[in-house]
Amino acid sequence: MDHHVISPAEYRELLAARAERDRLLALVNTPELVNFPKAVHLEAVHQLDRWGTTDRQGKEANDWFWLVGHLASRALEHHKEAERLAVRLMPDDALHAYILNDIDHHREKAVHHCITAAAALNHWHASMLGKKTAMQPGHAPAIAASEALEA
Asked: Are 10 and 96 in contact (CB under 8 A)?
């Protein structure tokens, strides 16, 4: 049995490479919510990384439309819930802090769904232009992951 022993320098290189990989993965997998163009770009990369596939030949404009519509409707629902909670918020309410957290949660989800919808539009746009993108709307793992995020 041949065991390869690495040198301390090789070990440090491997650790540095792992740290860089982890940094890049964190960058792609951490949603940006404020800088819209940056957020859409990062989300598009994240979507490719998470749900991408090279087999998108059978996707039609309707598939893209319904994906974008679904994501936009999720943004609307979270926005409406945040507004509903904000209207009933009373400063002397015993649940004031809890309701504020809930409002923040729904606002963050609404913003994130706007960004995910825009990133999906980015992939649709690339698809129309024949640019390479591996995004596959309606793909079962993507649907399951999306539903899990809402739970």
From this structure: no
Quick one: CA dihedral 85, 86, 92, 94, positive or negative? positive
Span 27-39, pLDDT tens digits: 767 676 678 888 8
Residue type at 132 in one-letter notation: K
As given in the structure block, the two tokens for residue 97 are 């802090």
pTM over 0.70: no
What does residue 130 show for φ and ψ, rounded to 5 degrees? 75, 15
Nearest to 44 by CA among 62, 32, 34: 32
Residue-wise pLDDT tens digits, 58-102: 568 898 899 999 999 999 999 999 999 988 777 777 777 788 899
Q: Is 90 left (phi over 0), alpha (psi -120 to 50) or beta?
A: beta
Could you give the CA distance from residue 76 to residue 78 in angstroms, rounded to a whole number? 6
